[in-house]
């Protein structure tokens, strides 16, 4: 069994250990945008998909009727009880390559309504597993009449999976009149976490140094 000599121990202590400590202290994850729906003219297909990470992506709805002729994905939910009903939603489905696991990190969602008595919640489902909600309660959307409306980011504990993934934007609450029934999703962006190059380089450099020391000792 190989044991480092005194000079080799000094090299390890001086070069390898600091590199490994530094690598472990650096944030090992960075985010990359892997699917981007801007719903240009209400399109259900994303404007961009990073196929290095996922195979395909598509949006759909379970609304009885929805519009694709405007620059948001739009639906008209029924009069829903915002406390209990989960009857209608927009869905964003990700098809993964089963041989390529992806680490997911966050989503950004821009939602709006003609009547802010409408409320929304966001969830995701991994494969055929249980549903996890990103929002802790029903949330007020932005107004469709807002000139500037920013998407809201929802972070979650990073999870890695090669299974398919589904996100849902649920709607509830009652509009004050029939002309204000519609709800909207303007953009939906999904991010994955990837190792930062600095951390990876430090770790690889440290491993390479250790291999070189072992080779020289032979």
Task: Please give a handful of descriptors for the protein shown.
218 residues; eight-stranded mixed β-sheet
What's the overall average pLDDT, rounded?
Answer: 79
Report the end-to-end length measured between terminal Cα atoms. 11 Å
Share in β-strands: 35-45%
How would you classify the helix and strand content by structural class? Answer: alpha+beta
Extended strand count: 13
Count of helix runs: 2
Helix content: 10-25%
Helix and strand string, N-terminal first?
A: HEEEEEEEEEEEEEH
Shape: elongated
CA-atom Rg in angstroms: 24 Å
| Contiguous uncertain segments of 5+ residues | 19-27
Largest sheet: 8 strands, mixed
Summarize the structure.
This protein is an alpha+beta fold. The chain has two helices and 13 strands; from the N terminus they run H-E-E-E-E-E-E-E-E-E-E-E-E-E-H.
SSE diagram, text form:
Blueprint: H1 6-25, E1 29-37, E2 48-49, E3 56-61, E4 66-67, E5 73-75, E6 89-95, E7 102-113, E8 119-126, E9 131-133, E10 142-143, E11 152-161, E12 165-172, E13 183-195, H2 197-217
Report on this structure.
- It is a single chain.
- The chain has 218 residues and is an alpha+beta fold.
- 27% of the residues are buried.
- The N and C termini lie close together (11 Å).
- The chain contains 2 helices and 13 strands, in the order αβββββββββββββα.
- The chain has helices at residues 6-25, 197-217; strands at 29-37, 48-49, 56-61, 66-67, 73-75, 89-95, 102-113, 119-126, 131-133, 142-143, 152-161, 165-172, 183-195.
């Amino acid at each position: 069994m190989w044991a480092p000599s005194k000079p080799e121990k000094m090299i390890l202590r001086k070069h390898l250990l600091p590199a490994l400590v530094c690598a472990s202290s650096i944030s090992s994850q960075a985010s990359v945008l892997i699917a981007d729906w801007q719903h240009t003219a209400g399109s259900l297909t994303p404007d961009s998909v990073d196929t290095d990470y996922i195979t395909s992506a598509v949006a759909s709805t379970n609304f009885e009727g929805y519009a694709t002729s405007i620059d948001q994905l739009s639906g008209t939910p029924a009069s829903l009880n915002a406390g209990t009903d989960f009857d209608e939603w927009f869905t964003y489905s990700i098809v993964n390559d089963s041989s390529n696991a992806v680490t997911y990190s966050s989503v950004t969602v821009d939602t709006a309504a003609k009547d802010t008595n409408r409320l929304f919640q966001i969830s995701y489902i991994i494969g055929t597993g249980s549903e996890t909600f990103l929002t802790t309660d029903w949330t007020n959307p932005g107004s469709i009449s807002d000139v500037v409306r920013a998407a809201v980011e929802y972070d979650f504990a990073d999870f890695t999976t090669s299974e398919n993934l589904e996100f849902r934007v649920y709607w509830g609450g009652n509009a004050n009149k029939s002309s204000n029934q519609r709800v909207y999703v303007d953009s939906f962006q999904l991010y994955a976490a990837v190792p930062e190059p600095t951390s990876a380089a430090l770790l690889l450099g440290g491993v390479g140094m250790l291999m070189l020391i072992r080779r020289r000792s032979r």
